[in-house]
Amino acid sequence: MGASLFYFFIFPGLLFAGITGAFLSWYDRKITARVQFRKGPPLLQPFYDFFKLLLVKETILPKHGSPLIFVLAPVFSVFGATMAGVFILLPLFNITTGFRGDLLVIFYLLTIPSFSYITGALASGNPLAAVGASREMKLILSYELTFLLLVAAIIMKCGQQFDLNSIIKTQQAGTSFIGSISGVLLFIVGIFCIQAKLALVPFDMPEAEAEITEGIFIEYSGAAYAMIKLAKYIMLFILPSFLIALLLGGFRLDGIHILWSLLKLLGVVLLLTLIRNTNPRLKIKQAVRFFLIWMNLLAVIAIVLIAFGY
Amino acid sequence: MGFKSYCFKKSLWVFHFGGASCNNCDIEILDCLTPRYDLERFGILLVGSIRHADVLLVNGSINRRDKDRLLEIYKQAPRPILVVAIGACGCTGGIFAEGITFAGPVDKIIPVDAYIPGCPPKPEAIIAGIVKLVQKT
Lengths: 310, 137
Description:
- The complex is a heterodimer of chains A (310) and B (137).
- Chain A is mainly α.
- Chain A has 13 helices and no strands.
- Helix content of chain A is 71%, strand content 0%.
- With 137 residues, chain B is α/β, with parallel strands linked by helices.
- Chain B has one domain: Rossmann fold, CATH 3.40.50.12280.
- Chain B contains six helices and five strands.
- In chain B, strands 2-1-3-4-5 form a five-stranded parallel beta sheet.
- In chain B, α2 links the parallel β1 and β2.
- Chain B is globular.
């Protein structure tokens, strides 16, 4: 019991993932600033933002809507992100627990933040939030099948093993999965899925800032918005980690390998940031077509290649 | 200086309300966020929703129709909120001060924390105003 609580709240869970995610968020903003020839925010900027929202600002509840669900939704999103984070990070840091966490649990937990954003937005009673929620729903419908195909391909590739531990072990014993043609295809698919899951720029229609003024988060202020920020920080850490666990051979925590693990993480986040900075926002129709046709096609090609042993 | 006010100062999120403006002040405000001036160094971001804002920038002459909108926006903002009036029109009314549709400078409608005069104020002047605002709180 005590160990589980420790895992959830302190080490791979809330505190650790939150802090690492906040630094990654700073890294993302700094890279964005450097791409635009700006100087960028200071290192502790995400913490200032979070504590300002949490401690200083007032939380406004909607009058026409459901205040209870409106307030609970960010808490659920933090819970979902942390839970998924624990199940992803425990195998990555090579901690064995009794739970043989398999990929499908992680797959379902990773959708909880998006669903709670939708419920929170619909509970706020704002028309722009409803537009954002509808777009987020369509986005989930489009990328989720692709993400499932990615997971299925990985399971096929390492010989019908469902838990993350043995996937990482298989890769560390041999080569990483990205060292094959199917692995490269799956990496491309995975990067775009993560981009859509994090709602970064080509796929940021749910919170389009200039168009529907932050969409699903438009009514959130104060501590509730701080919770959403925290969930976003955690997601920014665990989704790249998940991709690293699936395709890039996971983290290794001995000697020089620590540096390698860190570079893998920073590299994946750098890739996401560069995609975000060099693309315009798509329409929701284009995003659905992009995932349902092209990304699914890539994933299916990868699965066929895996079946033939490439 | 407490931890709370330090965090607040370090991360001011700005919401921009343009009244009946001639667009010069709007352009100068956007200039502050461009690579040359880069206000994100100090944690200042332009946000899309008033619910996320800490600073309400008001520019342009406020006419009778704008007045209701400005009051509504001000009531919707989560407290604490700082209000900055930018440009001659925002501070005093400028050349519109005696017009029939003019509904008073910003400080007759909502309390103002900082005034940045100029027609339009240079980005340096806007940054200086923000610095004074930060020192005041």
